[in-house]
């Protein structure tokens, strides 16, 4: 789940407006972008890299490790399966509004092939000082700089605010893992926590969750066994029941997915749960 | 947004998939109900609203005569149940029942898997059974790329203790599994699944919730979906493609991204204020700054506004440009309190000073505390 500077990155859907903008930002930051994919524009050069018709061709002709998908929702499953079949080690799926059925299919295929999936509906991954994959402001030194704090977040905007508070407190990040705002995700909270627990640069973890689903409760089970301290903030305490709050995954019904349930699970597991993101800095004191 | 398919349309899907459902018809007038009831014999009259606990709220009636069916229809049609107006009732034949089961197929995110659920205790809320007798609920997780093999379904039904009905139940589960998959459903629930005297099974009720993200490729289901119970302003926001929820407090909220918007509400509440709304204006929504601002300010009770931008994908300079432009056009009288960080923030802060003469707060908490004071409330 942590992306490293040596990894070769393929951009699927590279010729789109947003993809072009963010490919350039990734390149400026030092991400090793090696190729792009657009089935209708194979053969051209875009952002200084070759564009292939499929991920499979990109693997044969250029080679890559990670693929980042800037692809429309109903095309994501086909694009992801193409990258998985090509032998990608990681997929970062940024697209929002991918049908859940397609997500389940592609995650199942990825698992069978040994490919890691991050997202969909994620802002991506950042390893400050090395590279980033997705659309995070990695290049803003008031938000990202190298350091010992691992950050996991369902939300991109709130994850950015969390990283800002980490830097304000005088720390930096070992890695940012945006897991995404959808109900079904390739990387769930506990898997991201495992990656940070095993990462030797990480000394403490900031976990940014939100209402809906049971990922935080499942993650709390893993927090019990972690050697590293975990500081958490869960968004949606003031949200009314039965209403989706922007993210498709952010809804609670009855007690399922509620703020209270998540907070209790994390506190019982030994995590420090904060009332506002501005408490992140003081809470990291000493780590 | 998830699509709630009304019972009668969901049952039509079940019937198409080869699952037996009671004969019946939707009626929108008491006279039509009387005609259908006279033709079918003993009937049920069921309000077509997408809500749980419909029976307990009086939305399901079992009249003894066609005249009673008429009275039930007079009572139900046009009334409100669970925030929904009852525009139609389903009149269907009453089935003699030997036993009531629960059957469902749903998406299980932790797998991910397609999860089949079966309980010998049907006709009650599955959440209640989960609390009192979790042992009576059986689940079977299937790889989402695989079909449910009939022999697996049969073994599962036998294990769940459904007795002589096992072959019929297994057949229904296989059909439900395919229907859930092929209709992009989040949930397909049959409760109760009635076992009749002859060992056959009939779906007496059906809940079908379709993934809103799949609406573009499921146009007929999208057309059949029940409208969400939204306020006028929420409906207007939906038409504009904005995520807007009214909350009733006095501090308006404008932020980018679902997580940050929720957090802004949370911190307002935590510091003793009352948020008026959830309104997300990230991504491409900045082009809708003017209608967004109008929506937030249209609520009479709003006495101050928090604008919280933290740019990642969404650029704060672009959002502030849109918002300050709308502000200068609308010239609202409520005070606004800004905090701006992330992508494009230095330019965004400059623009805010230049165009509105406002100084952004260095932290979100600072902006929120000031907004609470301006609204005249809170402990701040």
Provide the descriptors you would attach to this structure in a database record.
heterodimer; A: 287 residues; alpha/beta; Rossmann fold; 2 domains; seven-stranded mixed β-sheet; B: 380 residues; alpha+beta; Dna Ligase, domain 1; D-amino Acid Aminotransferase, Chain A, domain 1; 3 domains; seven-stranded antiparallel β-sheet; four-stranded antiparallel β-sheet; 18 strands; elongated
What's this entry about, in short?
The complex is a heterodimer of chains A (287) and B (380). Chain A has 287 residues and is of the alpha/beta class.
Description:
The complex is a heterodimer of chains A (287) and B (380). Chain A contains 9 helices and 14 strands. Chain A has 287 residues and is of the alpha/beta class. Chain A has a 7-stranded mixed beta sheet with strand order 3-4-2-1-5-6-7, with helices on both faces. A 7-stranded mixed beta sheet of chain A has the order 9-8-11-10-12-13-14, sandwiched between helices. In chain A, helix 2 (55-61) runs parallel beside helix 3 (76-86), helix 6 (189-198) packs parallel to helix 7 and helix 7 (215-223) runs parallel beside helix 8 (259-268). In chain B, the strands form 5 sheets. In chain B, strands 1, 8, 9, 10, 11, 12 and 13 form a 7-stranded antiparallel beta sheet that branches. Chain B has a 4-stranded antiparallel beta sheet with strand order 2-7-3-4, with helices on one face. Chain B is elongated.
């Amino acid at each position: 789940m942590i992306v490293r500077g040596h990894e070769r990155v393929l951009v699927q859907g590279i010729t789109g407006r947003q993809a072009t903008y963010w490919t350039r930002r990734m390149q400026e930051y030092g991400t090793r972008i090696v190729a792009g994919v657009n089935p209708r524009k194979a053969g051209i050069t875009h952002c200084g890299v070759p564009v292939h018709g499929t991920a499979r061709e990109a693997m044969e002709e250029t080679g890559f490790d990670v693929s980042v998908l800037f692809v429309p929702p109903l095309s994501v499953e086909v694009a992801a399966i193409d990258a998985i079949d090509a032998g990608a080690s990681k997929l970062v799926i940024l697209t929002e509004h991918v049908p859940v059925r397609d997500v389940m299919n592609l995650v199942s295929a990825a698992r069978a092939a040994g490919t890691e999936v991050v997202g969909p509906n994620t802002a991506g991954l950042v390893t400050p000082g090395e590279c980033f994959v997705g659309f995070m402001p990695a290049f803003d030194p008031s938000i990202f700089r190298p350091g010992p704090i691992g950050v996991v977040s369902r939300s991109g905007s709130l994850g950015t605010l969390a990283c800002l508070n980490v830097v304000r407190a005088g720390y930096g990040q070992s890695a940012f893992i945006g897991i995404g705002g959808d109900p079904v995700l390739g990387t769930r909270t506990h898997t991201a926590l495992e990656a940070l627990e095993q990462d030797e640069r990480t000394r403490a973890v900031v976990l940014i969750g939100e209402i809906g689903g049971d990922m935080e409760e499942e993650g709390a089970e893993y927090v019990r066994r972690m050697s590293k301290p975990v500081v958490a903030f869960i968004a949606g305490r003031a949200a009314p029941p039965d209403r989706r709050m922007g993210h498709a995954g952010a809804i609670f019904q009855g007690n399922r997915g509620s703020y209270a349930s998540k907070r209790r699970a994390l506190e019982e597991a030994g995590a420090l749960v904060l009332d506002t993101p501005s408490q992140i800095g003081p809470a990291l004191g000493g780590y | 947004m998830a699509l709630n398919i009304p019972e009668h349309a969901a049952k039509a899907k079940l019937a198409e998939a080869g699952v037996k459902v009671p004969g019946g018809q939707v009626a929108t007038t008491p006279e039509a109900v009387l005609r259908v009831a006279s033709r079918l014999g003993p009937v049920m009259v069921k309000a077509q609203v997408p809500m749980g606990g419909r029976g307990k709220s009086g939305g399901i009636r079992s009249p003894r005569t066609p005249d009673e069916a008429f009275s039930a229809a007079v009572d139900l049609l046009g009334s409100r149940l669970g925030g929904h107006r009852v525009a139609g009732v389903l009149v269907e034949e009453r089935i003699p029942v030997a036993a009531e089961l629960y059957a469902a197929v749903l998406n299980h995110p932790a797998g991910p898997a397609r999860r089949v659920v079966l309980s010998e205790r049907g006709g009650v809320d599955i959440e209640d059974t989960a609390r009192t007798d979790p042992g009576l609920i059986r689940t079977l997780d299937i790889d989402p790329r695989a079909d449910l093999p009939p022999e697996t379904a049969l073994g599962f039904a036998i294990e769940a203790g459904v007795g002589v009905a096992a072959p019929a139940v297994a057949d229904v589960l296989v059909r439900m599994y395919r229907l859930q998959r092929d209709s992009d459903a989040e949930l397909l629930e049959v409760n109760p699944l009635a076992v009749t005297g002859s060992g056959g099974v009939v779906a007496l009720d059906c809940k079908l919730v379709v993934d809103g993200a799949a609406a573009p490729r499921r146009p007929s289901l999208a057309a059949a979906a029940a409208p969400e119970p939204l306020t006028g302003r929420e409906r207007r926001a939906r038409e504009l493609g904005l995520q807007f929820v009214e909350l009733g407090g006095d501090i308006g909220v404008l932020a980018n991204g679902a997580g940050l918007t929720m957090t802004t509400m949370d911190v307002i509440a935590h510091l003793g204020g009352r948020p008026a709304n959830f309104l997300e204006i990230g991504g491409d929504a900045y082009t809708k700054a003017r209608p967004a601002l109008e929506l937030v300010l249209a609520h009479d009770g709003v006495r101050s506004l928090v604008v919280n931008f933290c740019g990642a994908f969404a650029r704060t300079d672009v959002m502030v440009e849109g918002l300050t432009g709308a502000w200068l056009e609308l010239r609202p009288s409520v005070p606004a309190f800004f905090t701006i960080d992330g992508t494009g923030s230095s330019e965004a802060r400059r623009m805010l000073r230049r165009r509105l003469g406002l100084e952004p707060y260095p932290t979100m908490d600072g902006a929120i505390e000031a907004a609470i004071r301006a609204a005249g409330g809170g402990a701040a």
